Amino acid sequence: MKRIFLILIPIYSFAIALTSCQTNKPAKAIDVSTIDNLDVARYMGRWYEIARYDHRFEKGMTHITAEYSLMTNGKIKVVNSGIKNGKPKSITGKARFQTKESNGKLEVSFFSFFYSDYYILELDEDYHYAVIGSRSDEYLWILSRTPKPPQQIIDSLLTKIQARGYDTTNLYFVPQN
After folding, report:
1. CATH assignment at residue 160
2. Angstrom distance (rounded) from CA 148 to CA 15
3. Distances in Å between the alpha carbon of 45 and those of 58, 107, 171?
4. With the CA atoms of 150, 152, 156 and 158 taken in that order, what torsion angle do they form, in degrees rounded to the nearest 10?
5. Is there a domain that residue 86 lies in?
């Protein structure tokens, strides 16, 4: 009986610690609606990461690009490259549509079978600028076909992002020169 009690104390303490980390803060409402129709062939090619919510997997990286190309199995090859601590780094993954329609809801994987949302929230008609997010406000990227888009384009995208409910003060603008 004494052993069972000693085992239950750490488990109980752990459960209390977990529940005390939760907040009663209401979820922030954001608009994660995606584009209606994606011309996959036009989306392929190189995109420059202009801004992002910073995460541990990109922390300290600059000069980031994403290169998309169609694979014979219908998936999309994704090669993300950048500079970290003065050294080139890259990782290759794959993307696929979440549904049969080309509606901007994709998912991407860089680690075997673990997929994350890749929602194309905004895309200009010439496929020069895009905003990528997820079903929550955890991920956000601004992409461009050029490393230095005009400031008026960035300002326009920031306005659209804010209207969706995202906090643009959390964006990290990626050095590209």
Report:
1. 2.40.128.20
2. 49
3. 21, 18, 24
4. 70
5. yes
Judge whether 25 lies within some domain: no
Instruction: Quote the pLDDT of residue 102.
Output: 67
pLDDT of residue 28: 66
Query: What sign for the dihedral angle of Cα 79, 107, 36, 157?
Result: negative
The number of domains in the chain is: 1
Within a domain: 19 = no
Residues 63-106: pLDDT tens digits?
A: 999 999 999 998 999 999 999 999 999 999 999 988 877 689 99
Comparing 90-99, 121-130, 158-167, the range with the smallest average pLDDT is 90-99
SS (H, E, C) 79-137: EEEEEECCEEEEEEEEEEECCCCCCCEEEEEEECCEEEEEEEEEECCCCCEEEEECCCC
Q: Domain span at residue 163?
A: 40-173
In a domain, 159, yes or no: yes
